[in-house]
Amino acid sequence: MPPADPEQYRATSRASWADAAGAWGTYRHVIQAAGEPVSHWMVDAIDPQPGHRVLELAAGPGDTGLLAAELIEPGGTLISSDAVEEMVDVARARAAELGITNVEFRTIDAEWIDLPTADVDGVLARWGYMLLADPATALRETRRVLRPGGRLALAAWADPEENPWSFAPRAELVAMGAMQPPAPDAPDMFALSDPQRIVGLLEETGWGDIVVEQLPIVYRYASLDDWWDTSLEISASLARGVGALTPAQRDELRDAVDARLARYVADDGAVALPGLTHVAAAGA
């Protein structure tokens, strides 16, 4: 189900990602440490070869695409893209830090990909399509820019209950009436939690040779306070929900969330929060 006002949703989403980009750069190491198995699965799925052109959509800090950039040398080019320039800057800084130079950095909206038809050999999109106003249009655009035989690899979060690192505060905010649950199939991080919806969207938009698997991940923090502070900085929706609470309600929220997550806290206070993601690949 598309949002009631898709253009307003897109504008709000872009503003939120622009605001959060700095925090995604600051906490890139935490995000990528958890997501590294996902990135490797996706890169393997598109089988990048020397000389290939690879497009990464919704790249965020860019680590997934930068793994591919090293494999397409010599002669290959990574197009690292995101919908907001602020996030592209984060990926640009990461590439400079790693000394990777075969990269073009572009601001690209996945629903309108400003590239010629049949221009790239592979596409990567980690945790992006489920947040789009019109993922079907984005998947058609992705297929358009792929050369015949090219492959797409994507990731999308599995069931909310399998991802307490994100779901715990959302569930408590909904219970408190401070956040509305998303409408079914509306843009949301769990919009593609049903693997059959992923398969259906890919089939509907003309893809073949579809593979969907699940990968466990773990987010590690020194403490629940570290996890909480990081979450508030990288998630605009969580920050908005918490910001609408009174101080007493915020304390109540933290107590409830801490109780939900207590099982994942070690004796020394360190936290290992589990997650589960779908990974999928398909051929153009």
H-E string: HHEHEHEEHEHHEHHHE
Question: Strand-residue fraction?
Answer: 15-25%
Query: What is the CATH C level class, in words?
Result: Alpha Beta
For the record, what is the CATH homologous superfamily label?
Answer: Vaccinia Virus protein VP39
- CATH domain fold name: Rossmann fold
- Output the strand order for the largest sheet: 3-2-1-4-5-7-6
Shape descriptor: globular
Low-confidence stretches: none
Number of strands: 7
Helix content: 40-55%
Briefly note the structural class of the backbone: alpha/beta
Number of domains: 1
**Number of distinct helices:** 10
From the N-terminal CA to the C-terminal CA, the straight-line distance is 25 Å
CATH architecture: 3-Layer(aba) Sandwich
Mean pLDDT: 96
Major β-sheet, in short?
A: 7 strands, mixed
Rounded to an integer, what's the Rg over CA atoms?
A: 19 Å
Written overview of the protein:
By secondary structure, the protein is of the alpha/beta class. The protein has a single domain (6-160, 184-221, 272-283), classed as 3-Layer(aba) Sandwich (Rossmann fold). It contains 10 helices and 7 strands. The chain has helices at residues 6-26, 28-46, 63-71, 85-98, 135-145, 164-176, 195-204, 224-234, 236-243, 247-261; strands spanning 53-56, 77-82, 103-107, 120-126, 146-157, 208-221, 271-283. The protein has a 7-stranded mixed β-sheet with strand order 3-2-1-4-5-7-6. The protein is globular, with a radius of gyration of 19 Å. The chain starts with 5 loop residues before the first helix and ends with a strand.
